C-alpha cells in the first residue's frame, strides 16, 4: 500500500499536464500508465497545431511532454496500468497488477482508441498515410488524393474538411446509404472534388514507404478494385477507455465518455476526468492539456482546502 | 470594409491558439491585437508549466506562439485594438481606429489585467521579483522569503500556496482584518512559516537587479518600516478586459468575466470567448490554449455547417 494525494490514470497529454501541475503544487502524485508515457499522440506523423511547438512529430511531442513531466519531478509508473478502481469512499483505492494504492483524489485521463477496420496494411502504414484524425493530419495532404473510410457523421465531417485541403477526396462506405445527418449528406453532394464509393469494403492498404493504393471488394459488382491514393482516413468510430471508471460508478454518456463539468469534476467527489476520455466536444492535444491542468488544480483545492469552495 | 469568417480579439495564448486552428481549418481569419502578439504571459520571468516546453521565459513563450501563428498563416494586425463591437446581427462589425471589419463570427480573447498597487518600483521590478501569480511564479521562490500584498481570498490562497514552497511568507494587509473566507483565515493561522503584517500600506518596492526590500507605512504606529524580501506577490485583484464585449450585449458574471459554456459559446450566436476574459475558474496558459482551440472549432462548425448541431 502506498498513500497518495492524487493518482492520475494515464500518461497522455491530459495526464502529464495534470501531473506537472499537481506535483508542482505539492500534491503527492502518482501517474499510472499501462504503456509508456506520452499517449496516442505519438502515432501522429506530424503535429503542427500544438501552440508553441511549430513542427514536431507526434513522437517528439509525446517525448517532450514525458521529459517535461520527469523534469518537474512527476512520479510515473510506466507499464503499470490500473486494473480496478474503488472510488466511492473518501480514501480511494487504485489497483494494478503490481500493487494497491490509496489516494484522496483521482484524475482519469485514460484516453480513447480509434476503431480500426482491421485490414492488412492498416497498422503497418499508420502514421505513413493511414490516419484517424482529419483535423490533426489533413493539412499534410494539401492538394493530394485521399480516401475516407466510413459512413457516419465523423466520416462525413472529415470528408468535408479534407475537401477544402486535398485535391480529390473519395469516401468509401460499405453500405449504399450514409448513416449521417441530412445536412452533412447534402453538403457532401455539393462539393465538386468529392466522390462517394458506395458498397465498398476495404480489403487492404498498400504502399512502399507511404500509402499509394487501396484494394476494395465491390459488393454490388462483386469485383475486386484498386484505387491510387496518397492517404487513408479511417473514420469508423472511436471508443473511450472508460470501462474501469464506469465499473467504479463514474457516470458516462451514451457513447461511454465520462461526463465532466467546467471544473473537470465527475459525479463522484474527488474524482476528475480530462482529455479524450471525457464528453468534451473537442479531442485535441491542446484541449487535453487545458483539461488536465484544470483537473489537477481542482484536485489540489479538494485536498488542500476542502472547506473552501 | 473587409470581410472575414472569424475575427479574434486579442493575440495572447487563447487568441493565437484560436487563430492557428481557424486558419488551418480554412476560415478567413483576422486577429486584432492592441499591442504586440503574445499576450501578458510575456511578463512572466519563467514558465515551467506549459507542457512540452520545459523552461522558457514568458517572453520566449509569447514569441514562440506568435511565430507559430505567423508560420501557420494567421493574419495578425498588431497595434490595432478593437474600439467597438456590433455583434447582434448575423454579419457582425468590429471597429478599430483604422477600419471597420465585417465578420460571421467573433472570438473574444482579450484577457485580463492584474490590478496594481501603484507604488514606486512595482513596474520597474515586474518579472524581477514582483509577480501577480503564485501558481505561475511560486516555484521560483523555493526556500526564499516572499511577501504577499492583499487581504482577499486570492491573497490568502496565494499565501498558503507559497508557504509550502518558500522558507518564509509574510502577508501585508492595509486593514486589520482579512476580507476572506473563514476556512482560509484559519488555515493561515496554522502555518508556522506565515506571518501577517496588519495595517501596513506598501509605499515602495526596492532592489538592485531584483527585489530585495519593501518599504511600508504602519498605520497603527504611524512609522515607516522596511522588510527584506526576495519576492513580492501583488494580489489585489484582477479585472477582465470585457468592457467592449459588455457594451455589445455579451453576458458577463458579477466580476465582469464573460460567461461561456463547455463549447466556449457566449449568449450571442456566433460569438465565443476564450482565456482569461472568461469565467473559467483556471487562468493558465495551457487552459487558455485549450479554450482558444475549442472556440475556433466551434466557430468553424458555425460557419461551415450551420445546420449541423
Give a description of the structure.
The structure is a homodimer of 309-residue chains. Chain A has 309 residues and is α/β, with parallel strands linked by helices. Chain A has two domains: 180 residues, FAD/NAD(P)-binding domain; 105 residues, FAD/NAD(P)-binding domain (3-Layer(bba) Sandwich). In chain A, strands 1, 2, 3, 4, 5, 6 and 17 form a seven-stranded mixed beta sheet that branches. In chain A, strand 1, helix 1 and strand 2 form a beta-alpha-beta unit. In chain A, helix 4 runs parallel beside helix 5. Chain A is elongated, with a radius of gyration of 21 Å. At the A-B interface, helix 1, helix 2, helix 4, helix 5 and helix 7 of A face helix 1, helix 2, helix 4, helix 5 and helix 7 of B.
CATH architecture of the largest domain in chain A: 3-Layer(bba) Sandwich
Low-confidence stretches of chain A: none
Q: Tell me the number of structural domains of chain A.
A: 2
CATH-defined fold name of the largest domain in chain A: FAD/NAD(P)-binding domain
Order of helices and strands of chain A: EHEHEEEEEEHEHEHEEEEEEHEH
Overall mean confidence score, pLDDT of chain A: 93
Q: What is the helix fraction of residues of chain A, given as a range?
A: 10-25%
Fraction in beta strands of chain A:
25-35%
Work out the largest interface and the residue count of each chain.
Answer: A-B, 55 and 56 residues
Count of individual helical segments of chain A: 7
The rounded distance between the terminal residues' Cα atoms of chain A is: 31 Å
Assembly type of the shown chains? homodimer
Give me the CATH superfamily of the largest domain in chain A.
Answer: FAD/NAD(P)-binding domain
Shape of chain A: elongated
The level-1 CATH class of the largest domain in chain A: Alpha Beta
Look at the helices and sheets of chain A and give the structural class: alpha/beta
Amino acid at each position: 500500500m502506498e498513500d497518495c494525494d492524487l493518482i492520475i490514470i494515464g500518461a497522455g497529454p491530459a495526464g502529464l499536464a495534470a501531473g506537472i501541475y499537481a506535483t508542482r503544487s505539492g500534491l503527492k502524485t502518482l501517474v499510472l500508465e499501462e504503456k509508456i508515457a506520452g499517449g496516442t499522440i505519438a502515432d501522429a506523423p506530424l503535429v503542427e497545431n500544438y501552440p508553441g511547438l511549430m513542427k514536431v512529430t507526434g513522437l517528439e511531442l509525446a517525448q517532450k511532454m514525458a521529459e517535461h513531466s520527469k523534469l518537474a519531478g512527476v512520479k510515473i509508473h510506466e507499464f503499470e496500468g490500473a486494473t480496478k478502481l474503488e472510488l466511492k469512499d473518501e480514501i480511494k483505492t487504485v489497483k494494478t497488477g503490481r500493487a494497491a494504492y490509496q489516494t484522496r483524489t483521482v484524475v482519469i485521463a485514460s484516453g480513447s482508441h480509434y476503431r480500426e477496420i482491421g485490414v492488412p496494411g492498416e497498422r503497418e502504414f499508420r502514421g505513413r498515410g493511414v490516419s484517424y484524425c482529419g483535423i490533426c493530419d489533413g493539412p499534410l495532404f494539401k492538394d493530394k488524393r485521399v480516401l475516407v473510410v466510413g459512413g457516419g457523421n465523423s466520416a462525413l465531417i472529415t470528408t468535408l474538411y479534407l475537401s477544402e485541403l486535398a485535391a480529390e477526396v473519395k469516401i468509401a462506405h460499405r453500405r449504399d446509404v450514409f448513416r449521417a445527418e441530412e445536412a452533412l449528406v447534402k453538403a457532401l453532394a455539393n462539393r465538386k472534388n468529392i466522390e462517394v464509393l458506395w458498397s465498398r469494403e476495404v480489403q487492404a492498404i498498400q504502399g512502399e514507404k507511404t500509402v499509394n493504393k487501396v484494394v476494395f471488394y465491390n459488393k454490388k459488382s462483386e469485383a475486386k478494385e484498386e484505387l491510387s491514393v496518397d492517404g487513408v482516413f479511417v473514420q469508423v468510430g472511436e471508443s473511450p477507455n472508460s470501462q474501469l471508471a464506469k465499473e467504479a460508478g463514474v457516470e458516462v454518456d451514451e457513447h461511454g465518455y465520462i461526463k465532466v463539468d467546467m471544473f473537470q469534476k465527475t459525479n463522484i467527489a474527488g474524482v476528475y476526468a480530462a482529455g479524450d476520455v471525457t464528453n468534451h466536444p473537442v479531442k485535441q492535444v491542446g484541449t487535453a492539456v487545458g483539461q488536465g491542468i484544470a483537473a489537477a488544480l481542482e484536485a489540489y483545492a479538494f485536498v488542500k482546502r476542502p472547506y473552501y469552495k
